[in-house]
Amino acid sequence: MARADKATAVAELKSEFEGSAAAVLTEYRGLTVAQLKELRTSLGGNAKFAVAKNTLTKIAANEAGLPGLDGLLTGPTAIAFVNGDVVEAAKGLRDFAKANPLLVIKGGVLDGKTLDATEITKLADLESREVLLAKLAGAMKAKQSAAAAMFAALPTQMAQLADALRAKREEAGE
Questions:
Q1: Alpha helices in 44-101 (DSSP H)
Q2: Distance in angstroms (rounded) separating the CA atoms of residues 75 and 29
Q3: What is the pLDDT of residues 98-132, one digit of tens each?
């Protein structure tokens, strides 16, 4: 590669690191071109999967303020730059790695924090954003319903107490 081509590649990688919500580093040794195409298709609009040279990736990551990736950049490396839902992209990579054991998830970076392979797997185990929001809304509604029931119970209990007091006084002849 000519020096100008390397500088251009580093600039592109740096802009991808800075512009993406997360990046997942994988080893793709042994995968065919057709399998890589299938992986790119399965990631859809959530991530861009690119093969990059380790030395250029190290330089771009350091320039982007991500020095923790140096240890992950060994062997043939491909990077999934996540622009959409991070959980969905992690699930796509995990599922593809299960079906094709030659794809190895090395680790990645999320919001400037370096993640190892187990943390990426934990991220993939999360439910989707929509499901989590629905659960949150359900929990909020349940709390509001409980509060409304409690506030409605106070006047009802007061009325029952007054009625019991009235009945007791009538029995006593007052």
A1: 54-63, 86-99
A2: 8
A3: 888 888 888 888 887 888 888 888 888 777 777 87
Rg (CA), the chain: 28
Return the closest-CA partner of residue 56 out of 106, 17, 107, 112: 17
H or E element in which residue 109 lies: strand 104-110
User: Tokens for 52?
Assistant: 């990059």
Q: What would the two tokens of residue 152 be?
A: 């409605």
For the whole model, what pTM was predicted? 0.70
**Distance (Å, rounded) from C-alpha 56 to C-alpha 11?**
9
Rounded CA-CA distance 20/11 in Å is 14
The structure tokens listed for 29 are 């040794």
